[in-house]
Amino acid sequence: MFQFTLESESDGARAGRFATPHGTVETPTFMPVGTHGAVKAMTPDQVRATGAQVVLANTYHLALRPGEALVEKLGGLHAFMGWPHTILTDSGGFQVFSLPNKEISDRGVRFKNEVTGDAMDLTPERSIEIQNALGADIIMAFDECTPYPASEKLAGQGVRRTLLWLERCLTAHARTEDQALFGIVQGSVYPALREACAEALVACDLPGYAIGGVSVGEGHELLCQVTEHAAPLLPREKPRYLMGVGLPEDLLAAIGYGMDLFDCVIPTRYARSATVFTTRGRLRLTNRRFRRDGYPIDRSCACAACTGGFTRAYLHHLFAANEILSAILCAIHNVHFYEQLAGEARRAVLEGRFADWRAEFEARYRGERRN
Q: Which of 137, 250, 263, 298 is catalytic?
């Protein structure tokens, strides 16, 4: 049911096709984040119209509210959120490790339920139980996401627990036929730890692999170093997922290192604060210079916001008036921008010209960032 086909390679980048129970995903691709079962400020139809093929949902937040049992009773996550295409759920680990006053042990993590205030445990078994009930196509192993900066000792402990917990995730996983369980390479910025973690994961012959711990504040240069080192450690014939990344320049760098799947809240988060991405760089639409600007966000963009007659001046007005349509239109544009960026990268790989295409895009994107 899950099959990854590597179609082409160019200058380190890859183009592939990943068959899942709810559709075949063409890679590289960007996956919008729908934390609570919805991509913020967008309907499922609007998300699909951007070219998105996969949407993420969050195990931790959905377990808190409304609870995985209700989602399962109402037909599973695809029916619940009205998205009949591929879905990925994370393990909940990143959110739990971001909470204050949590207690981490080999058993799992104990923390305070932010809804009820009660003590709550998240273990590898519980994470998989929730994800099995939600019913996403791709589910993630429960791992220890090491913060940055971290000592080599602390990062090593994170790798040890990540591998220990993966064994328990595999034992607990009850839907192997229709849910692909991905393992996660941890190890912070330490090459030897990344190598040891990847080697152990690959030995498990999983349907796919992720690189984690690269969106916790280390910056673009270290992100590139870690990804460039870790990506070749993963099997060529399996999909590779870089978690929580990132800005357009991060995506292009990671695609060039051979990564296939990406997710980040940046497109919709930036949209809500009036920041939009264009082929000429980023724009902040609340800037006064856009008050009388009759151009669309990006004249070269085919998204519904740019082709629908909505001007920068109108969007400037919507933000000033605190109208929710401002976030909706900018989210549509930003997600479309990311999808088109990944799609153009894919076409460039298939045509054997990724390096040239990337250089042209980056020169244009950087050269007029302030315009």
A: 263
pTM: 0.97
Domain boundary among 209, 229, 264: 264
90, 137, 260, 298: which one is catalytic? 90
Which residues are within 8 A (CB) of 252 and not within 5 positions of it... i.e. 6 or more apart? 341, 345, 358, 361, 362
Torsions phi, psi for 369 (to 5 deg): -60, -30
State yes or no: pLDDT of 368 exceeds 70. no
**Mean pLDDT calculated for residue range 328-339:** 98
90 tagged catalytic: yes
CB atoms near residue 208 (< 10 Å):
22
Q: Which of 286, 278, 282, 293 is nearest to 323 (CA)?
A: 286
124, 222: one domain: yes
Of 243, 264, 285, which closes a domain? 264
* Percent of the residues in the chain that have a pLDDT greater than 70, as a whole number: 99
Residues 86 and 213 in one domain: yes
Distance CA(216)–CA(145), nearest Å, equals 9
Question: If we measure between CA atoms, which residue out of 53, 61, 55, 25 comes closest to residue 39?
Answer: 55
279 and 259 in a common domain:
no
